[in-house]
Write a structure and sequence with these properties.
The chain is 62% helix and 10% strand. The protein contains 21 helices and 10 strands. The strands form 2 sheets. It has a 6-stranded mixed β-sheet with strand order 6-7-8-3-9-10. The longest helix has 54 residues.
Length: 600
């Protein structure tokens, strides 16, 4: 369903049933206990009210010295107390079951969501419609366990209303019908309010996303310097206020518009309760009803109206989340990334890019790569160069299998990449991009070890990787060396605070992770932009001197790429020149003019 539609009653009921079925499949015993609890929670108060009313009647009879009335009073008091004790014991068990239910069901649904999200086609992570759908589905996933609790409460409230009306029917059918009719306006008003609130929520997805991004930026210590220097703090605070007002004001306006109807429905319910009490009072005065019936009618009428109000409030509180169930279901139906079945048994001897063109998904997306053809032999060192936006990073994404060509094909030893089990290809790759991951929650050791998490940690390999990345010196100076947290917001059990690394230090640590992986094919996309030129030159010299690895690199530094066996110059998504450094310089074409200042 689209994000601006409200749910029909039929859709709501189907959604509630879907939540119940999903929960039962995950934790059947907990769900059964929860349903039993809903029945007990609804009926016990009515039974307690019944015996309390009988106690009142027996007390009046005992006051009039009727024989046997005293023993009835004691019996009813004991029964009322016993029911109260059962309610207390049951509530304790119910609290435990609820906590267990939230843990089991919530974790399972959340895990399913994460697994599905991380297995989608890669292009969906750049797709706005997928992002919007994911935001709404994620909200349902986060509140799933809470939603089930509310559904159990709805069941309990429905049973309470039905049993209260049934109890009133035992006294007078017209009274029961009168009370039932009086709660309908309140239910209608609350439903109307909740539908409009849910519609506003879905319409303002982008407003809240902008608001969240602004708040995230405002609370990032590393960004405060630039925000202050550019005078952005007050501007962003004003923008935050405007967006918050835009989101909240619409909801408040809806509540204001519905306020007269809410007051009217409340007056109808209060009037109905007064009429019911006057009716029973007159019946008692005329000796047509026992004295305890006043308490019974008053409590049951109040419970019917309270349960109705609670029912509407509960449905209103989950209406938005129930609506998001359809987004969750739609999101979970998104097709997963197709993975080939051919497994790479060894390192490819040749990577061939054959007439590859590519455009990002979308009707109006421009062509990013145009008829790219090249081949990379095993242990060969190649470089991609070109201005920003030439298509270099996109070509890397195609080589790694994250994207599939729009036309043409990529072959590994004559096998199309689309037919290969990508996990077996990825095991051969060590990829370090500009936007590498900095694992701030982990130690320096872990940041290196995560390069090959499937293997047992190897201290010698870690040391060698740090040496290759020229990271050993600054790692030794950390408070606890490799065991130091590399984030100043973290501290270990001994209260030793972590250290904030510079951009260049982070790049060296990420490069060490790549070297620790010890992959036969290394792809480096501007991985050393924050490292000084001399250190970068030494790092790449060691890389290019090692003829046991295939190295593919993207860089704007001539010192980095000049030793490559072959350089491909890209412009507007096409290869315009290729050859060795000396050949391209001698050509005095686009490559020469791009690096002319560095040559001087």
């Amino acid at each position: 369903m689209s994000n601006n539609k409200t749910l029909t009653t039929k859709q709501q009921l189907r959604a509630i049933a879907a939540v119940a079925v999903m929960s039962f499949r995950i934790a059947p015993s907990a769900v059964a206990f929860k349903l039993l609890g809903s029945v007990v929670t609804a009926l016990l108060p009515i039974a307690t009210t019944y015996f309390a009313a009988r106690t009142t009647t027996a007390l009046a009879s005992a006051y009039g010295n009727n024989p046997g009335a005293k023993s009835q009073v004691i019996t009813y008091v004991l029964l009322t107390a016993a029911l109260g004790l059962v309610m207390i014991i049951w509530s304790s068990f119910d609290t435990y079951i609820q906590a267990k239910m939230r843990y089991i069901v919530g974790a399972r649904i959340s895990n399913r969501m994460f697994e599905h999200f991380l297995s989608l086609d890669f292009w969906r992570y750049d797709d706005k419609q997928t992002a919007d759908l994911y935001d709404r589905a994620k909200k349902f996933s986060a509140f799933y366990a809470w939603v089930f609790d509310r559904i159990a409460m709805i069941v309990s409230q429905v049973i309470a209303i039905v049993s209260a009306v049934a109890a009133l029917l035992s006294v007078n059918w017209m009274l029961a019908l009168f009370v039932l009719i009086s709660v309908i306006p309140g239910i209608y008003v609350q439903f109307k309010l909740s539908r409009r609130q849910a519609k506003i929520w879905n319409e303002n997805v982008e407003v809240r996303r902008s608001l969240n991004l602004i708040e995230w930026d405002l609370l990032q210590p590393r960004l405060i310097g630039e925000l202050r220097l550019y005078g952005m703090v007050k501007h962003l605070l004003r923008l935050r206020t405007d967006l918050h007002d835009k989101d909240e004001k619409q909801r408040i306006d809806v509540e204001r518009q519905v306020l007269p109807l809410t007051l009217l429905s409340n007056l109808i319910e209060t009037g109905a309760e007064v009429v019911a009490l006057i009716w029973v009072s007159l019946k008692i005065i005329n000796h047509h009803q026992p004295l305890g019936q006043f308490l019974f009618i008053q409590q049951i009428t109040n419970r019917a109206m309270t349960s109705a109000a609670g029912l509407v409030a509960t449905i209103s509180s989950i209406d938005e989340d129930i609506a998001n169930l359809f987004d969750y279901e739609q999101f979970m139906k998104l097709p997963l990334h197709h993975n080939g079945s051919h497994k790479l048994a060894s390192i490819p001897e040749e990577i061939v890019v054959k007439d590859v063109s590519f455009r990002y998904p979308g009707k109006d997306s421009p062509e990013v790569l145009r008829e790219i053809s090249l081949d990379i032999k095993r242990n060969q060192h190649v470089a991609f160069v070109g201005e920003n936006g030439a298509g270099k990073s996109t070509l890397v994404k195609l080589l790694t299998g994250l994207y599939s060509p729009t036309s043409g094909e990529i072959l590994l030893d004559n096998v199309p990449l689309q037919e290969i089990d990508l996990s077996t290809w990825h095991r051969q790759l060590g990829v370090l991009q500009q936007d590498f991951i900095a694992y701030g929650f982990a130690t320096a050791r872990d940041n290196v070890r995560f390069g090959d998490i499937e293997s047992k940690s190897d201290e010698q390999r870690i040391d060698a990787a740090l040496q290759e990345a020229e990271a050993s010196d600054f790692i030794r100076k950390l408070p606890k060396g490799l065991d130091s947290f590399v984030n100043n917001w973290m501290e270990d059990e001994e209260r030793t605070k972590g250290v904030e690394l510079s951009g260049g230090q982070w790049q060296r640590l990420a490069l060490a992770r790549n070297f620790y992986r010890n992959a036969p094919v290394i792809i480096l996309d501007e991985p050393t932009s924050a490292i000084d030129a001399l250190a970068e030159s030494r790092i790449f010299k060691r890389l290019f001197d090692n003829r046991k690895r295939t190295v593919i690199t993207i860089s704007h530094r001539l010192s980095t790429i000049k030793k490559a066996d072959k350089i491909y110059m890209l412009e507007d998504g096409a290869i315009v020149e290729s050859g060795t450094h000396d050949e391209l310089i001698a050509l005095k074409g686009k490559f020469y003019h791009m690096f002319e200042s560095q040559l001087r």
